[in-house]
Amino acid sequence: MNERTVWQFTDDRGQLSATGERPQRVLAYIQAGATLWDHGIRPAGLFGSGHDDPAAPDPAKTGSLPLDGIAYAGAGAALDVDALLRCAPDLVVAVSYGGGQVYGLDPETAKHLEGQLPVVVIDVGQARTLADIGDRFTELARSLGAEEPASATRELDAARARLRALTAGPDRARVLALSPADQEQAYLARPRMWPELRVLADLGVGLIEPAEGPGANWSTTGWTEAAALRPDVVLADIRVNAVPLAELRDNAEWAAVAATARVVPWNPEPVCSAHAHARFLELVADALDSPGTA
């Protein structure tokens, strides 16, 4: 290009984006936008995936991001290039779960979008560690002139140390991560497939591994089978596509689990900042440190 390059960034597809001035108006997938906010970047707009409400962002995914004054382009099949460009972005930050495909956007929509402005894609899939994902967001934020405060790293170090201390003994609590499917079934997370859960395992948390079977990321099972696992702590998916726990109050099997287990809200699409990760680890630590937890 003829103009002088002021900003450039190579994303996780190996694709270089370069512009004559540093981008100022970022349109981001919700998870990416919330992560950038913790690094000091306020997105101009957000978009969701096919699992999200087309009218409003999922609050479970937004972390500490304030939504007032931030445009929401929508989600799902109705999300087209015109909707994405309505907030006049000069950069799009998206995520991928491998293969370089932009998550949440139809491939043709993503292609047309890239024809009009730079699109940076960060891989948040199970092949990456959470630290690797966080590092990539840090690199992107630095390229945009921002950085997460050093205090966030100290928070994360303290949260990690606390979890290690709580899991150092021989008797470890049984922790089950799940997403409520409906009144009859639950999706049990396979811990090795989720970067945030692998961190918990590395810190000594005793995560319950579902039985082998169909489903790469989740094992679909009945609530009776889930209750039979007798977890001490449950990490429960709180995204809008999961059945709210309040709707399971009359489910006898879930009631039996909730009567004895500590329930921790869990967002399987985590905000990938040190601050947000520290908050999650502290919630898990609080649950493990509660009276009655093994």
Automatic annotation (TrEMBL):
It is found in: Cell envelope. Keywords: Signal, Transport. The keyword ATP-binding does not apply. Its main location: other. CDD domains: TroA-like (cd00636). Residues 50-261 form the Fe/B12 periplasmic-binding domain. Transmembrane segments: none annotated. InterPro entries: ABC_transptr_periplasmic_BD, Bact_iron-sidero_bind. It holds the Pfam family Peripla_BP_2. Belongs to the bacterial solute-binding protein 8 family. This is ABC transporter substrate-binding protein. It comes from Streptomyces drozdowiczii.
